[in-house]
Amino acid sequence: MMVALTLVTLARPLGAQPISASEPRPKAHRTASVVKFLAGAALGLAVHESAHLVLDFAFDAKPGIKRVELGGIPFFAITHRSDLSPRRELAISSAGFWVQEAWNEILLTRRPMLRHANAPMAKGALAFNILTSIGYAAVAFGRTGPVERDTRGMADSAGVDERAIAALVLAPALLDGYRYFRPEAAWAKWAARAAKLGSAALVLKSTSD
Prior knowledge:
Elements: H1 2-11, H2 27-58, E1 64-70, E2 73-79, H3 86-110, H4 120-142, H5 150-158, H6 162-181, H7 186-205
Antiparallel strand pairs: 1-2
Helix pairs in contact: 1-4, 2-3, 2-4, 3-4, 3-5, 3-6, 3-7, 4-6, 5-6, 6-7
């Protein structure tokens, strides 16, 4: 339910002023808003993958691209050499989530009323960040999907059950979604920030370089 509500509401380009039924939004404007929303989502994907690549190159992990499938749907995964230390493996696997969560925090802190703003690109990025984390968490709870999945890399390098990683990824996504709909909820803001520190704390649990 949260996934559907988030996607539908974020995809709706809302202006600063409500528009009545007798004054429909011009078709060209609606089309432009949808394009900007999708561009924001595409930017979210690019930033997520770029975060992995930055640490791949920083750790000389020799990144590559591999074709994988999830439920028969083909896509790609960025891979790296398998002999990295647990701490470096954890950082690389977590990088996409760290960037997503930081970006969400910036968006929701600087623009707490984003839901009511005419900002389709920002909403597209937020939607991608939230729904991607929810999707990863769902796969991690079931421990299914390609072995290259980020949550498995995090679990193996930290020495914890992948379902714990699923909860760690899911919690800030759901809280950020709640903040989008209820920006006045101070408890959600602080709970989300605390949850986002969880994956960073895993670095302390993993062994040193």
